[in-house]
Amino acid sequence: MAIEVRIPTILRTYTGGEKAVEGGGATLAELLADLETRHAGIQARIVDGGELRRFVNVYLNDEDVRFLDGINTKLTDGDNVTILPAVAGGMA
Amino acid sequence: MLTITQALFDQIVAHARQDHPDEACGVVAGPVGKGRPERFIPMLNAARSPTFYEFDSQDLLKLYREMDDRDEEPVIIYHSHTATEAYPSRTDISYANEPGAHYVLVSTADADAAGPFQFRSYRIVEGEVTEEEVKVVEAY
């Protein structure tokens, strides 16, 4: 099952510079675990304690997965997943 | 060094002043690899806060798609501090995820001993902050 995953610049060190990679899995969690097998270290940049990191946005076909089922969001063949770190900060 | 046109400089300052007392934020995009800021893109601060900013997640996706389609990258990522100096906070540093970008901070605190309106630029790479000179030009 192939799902295209778009990788942000900051994480391309794990994908040999590739902007997009393919992976598989029935859920987002499985997909990220699958990516980890070929791109060691990437999972921990996205997941912390079994949940998506607060300041990493993951989109399934343009929808923020926080509004779906988060890391348990179901995936199907041909889906597109985009990972984008939040642009955030402030004096706090 | 960050080289920026007076027009873009003024747009960033105006946006920061307009959103005060909330933090303002945005991007100036430019052609990939050129390091030249060209397209001013003010963003909505989804946090609508005087002490925090975050791009709205849908806006963020749209922004990156658009830049991708146009072969652009975020040359400048700017935001304002409304009560403190224009220096990256610990929060700014921990969420800085674009090592290739110039992080511009402006302070709308003005007043105090900080002197006139501050417009400063930094590189933030793997938690390390390096301030750089800002050169304002009429045109590139």
How are the SSEs ordered, and which strands pair?
The complex is a heterodimer of chains A (92) and B (140).
Chain A: E1 3-6, E2 20-23, H1 28-38, H2 42-46, E3 47-48, E4 51-52, E5 56-60, E6 63-64, E7 80-85, E8 88-89
Parallel strand pairs in A: 1-7
Antiparallel strand pairs in A: 1-2, 3-4, 5-6, 5-7
Chain B: E1 2-5, H1 6-19, E2 25-31, E3 39-43, E4 53-54, H2 57-69, E5 72-81, H3 90-94, E6 102-107, E7 118-125, E8 128-132, E9 134-137
Parallel strand pairs in B: 1-9, 5-6
Antiparallel strand pairs in B: 2-3, 2-5, 6-7, 7-8
Number of spatially distinct domains of chain A: 1
Oligomer: heterodimer
Low-pLDDT stretches of chain A: none
CATH superfamily of chain B: Cytidine Deaminase, domain 2
Task: Tell me the span between the first and last alpha carbons of chain A.
Answer: 43 Å
C-alpha termini separation of chain B: 14 Å
Query: Which regions of chain B have little confidence, pLDDT < 50, spanning 5+ residues?
Result: none
Report the biggest beta sheet of chain B as strand number plus sense, adding barrel if it closes.
6 strands, mixed
CATH first level of chain A: Alpha Beta
Give the amount of beta strand of chain A, in percent.
Answer: 25-35%
What structural class do the secondary elements of chain A suggest? Answer: alpha+beta
Helical proportion of chain B, percent range: 10-25%
**Sheet with the most strands: spatial strand order of chain B:** 3-2-5-6-7-8
Q: What letter string, H or E per element, gives the SSE order of chain B?
A: EHEEEHEHEEEE
Cα-atom Rg of chain B, whole angstroms? 14 Å
CATH architecture of chain A, please? Roll
Helix content of chain A: 10-25%
In round numbers, the mean pLDDT of chain A is: 96
Organism (chain A): Streptomyces albiflavescens
Protein name (chain A): Molybdopterin synthase sulfur carrier subunit
Pfam family, one (chain A): ThiS
InterPro entries (chain A): Beta-grasp_dom_sf, Mopterin_synth/thiamin_S_b, Sulfur_Carrier/Prot_Modifier, ThiS/MoaD-like
